[in-house]
């Protein structure tokens, strides 16, 4: 569920992706059973189902992947829009504290997981690289160098980082 958006996912789409070999009704029944079991584990209000959509309740479930995407997007947006720079350093620090590396790295054989992991990884690196360029342009070379070293640690094989 996390790889499809966290808060508003089509139930039929999710069921089809999780149980591709089952027919529509069977996969939806499996999804309903799984949701029931998850609610017993996470709490009855943890998963919201309404009008054919399913999602995690942001008031009761915290997902670090969602926050990683949020921080990355805010960094990218504020640099592109040339605004809100005073909070960038805090966002970058928060992002680096949350993002330890590729999402479910040991599960990358599954196509859905690989795509989500790659998308999140690229989003994080793009935001960090934009910020590193921004602070380098502001002649904050020591801070830029520290950030670039962290970026290299996250993506050691990417020549763009060197």
Alpha-beta classification: mainly alpha
Order of helices and strands: EHHEEHHHH
User: Quick one: biggest sheet?
Assistant: 3 strands, antiparallel
Return residue spans where pLDDT drops below 50 for at least 5 consecutive residues: none
Number of helices: 6
The amount of helix comes to 55-70%
Number of domains: 2
Please give a structural write-up.
The protein has two domains: 2-56; 64-161, no CATH class. It is mainly alpha-helical. It has helices at residues 11-18, 24-42, 64-80, 88-98, 111-137, 141-154; strands at 9-10, 47-50, 53-56. Helix content is 59%, strand content 6%. Strands 1-3-2 form a three-stranded antiparallel β-sheet. The protein is built from six helices and three strands, in the order βααββαααα. Helix 3 (64-80) runs parallel beside helix 5 and helix 5 (111-137) runs antiparallel to helix 6. The model has no long low-confidence stretch (mean pLDDT 81).
